[in-house]
Amino acid sequence: MSNSQIYLKSGFPRAPLGNGIGRYIGQLQRVTLKFCKNHGASRGVRDFIENDLLNYAKENPGVVVYCKPRRHRGPVIKAEYLNGETHWIPCQKFSREDVVKYMELVRTQSYNGSSLRLRKFWHTEFPSIQGPWTPFTNRDPKLNITEFPNKEIGACTKYGPSATEEIIRLFKEQQLQEKLKEEGEIEEH
């Protein structure tokens, strides 16, 4: 393990407070595309502005997009988020498709996770010698050589009646007994 992570800020994985509970609020506030009108390294950004920028702005009405031409400077995507963080993505010699991918990336991420060393909520001095648990830990090994799709494995597992089904059955029995009592076929004890 390298020691480069020692100097990073540390913290827990986080999401903006309550985001997605009622409705999702996109965290990207502003994008500034800085580029040179003449230099070849800015060609991908210029192509994005000419062909895709209007569609991007229509699809993302909550994001403000600025275009800032600069002479003899490399192209940069500057993204500003609601929590006050700013990310700079240098895009020298990017193609138009690369710029589209990075514009989608800055739109969907809420903070720069790569600059944060993640901390765990628990710590142990004696880790398990068996290794960490995964969903495949206790699976049958014959699944490794099975050809899919497989009717036997894919068959729906039928369990006994659910609690709701059992309550409905008891209720219908109770109604039937009450109906028979009214007709006088069953005597009360």
What Rg, in angstroms, do the CA atoms define?
Answer: 30 Å
What portion of the residues fall into strands of 2 or more residues? 15-25%
CATH architecture descriptor text of the largest domain: 3-Layer(aba) Sandwich
User: Averaging pLDDT over every residue, what do you get?
Assistant: 84
Helix-residue proportion: 25-40%
Number of separate structural domains: 2
Keywords: Mitochondrion, Ribonucleoprotein, Ribosomal protein
Family: Belongs to the mitochondrion-specific ribosomal protein mL43 family.
Subcellular location: Mitochondrion
Main location: mitochondrion
Describe the 3D structure.
With 189 residues, the protein is of the alpha/beta class. It has 2 domains: 10-118, Glutaredoxin; 137-182, no CATH class. 29% of the residues lie in helices and 16% in strands. It has helices at residues 43-51, 53-59, 96-108, 151-154, 163-183; strands spanning 9-11, 28-35, 64-69, 76-81, 86-90, 116-118. The strands form 2 sheets. Strands 3-2-4-5 form a 4-stranded mixed β-sheet, covered by helices on one side. A two-stranded parallel ribbon has the order 1-6. A hairpin with a 4-residue loop joins strand 4 and strand 5 (86-90). Helix 1 (43-51) crosses helix 3 (96-108). It comes from Nasonia vitripennis (Parasitic wasp). It holds the Pfam family L51_S25_CI-B8.
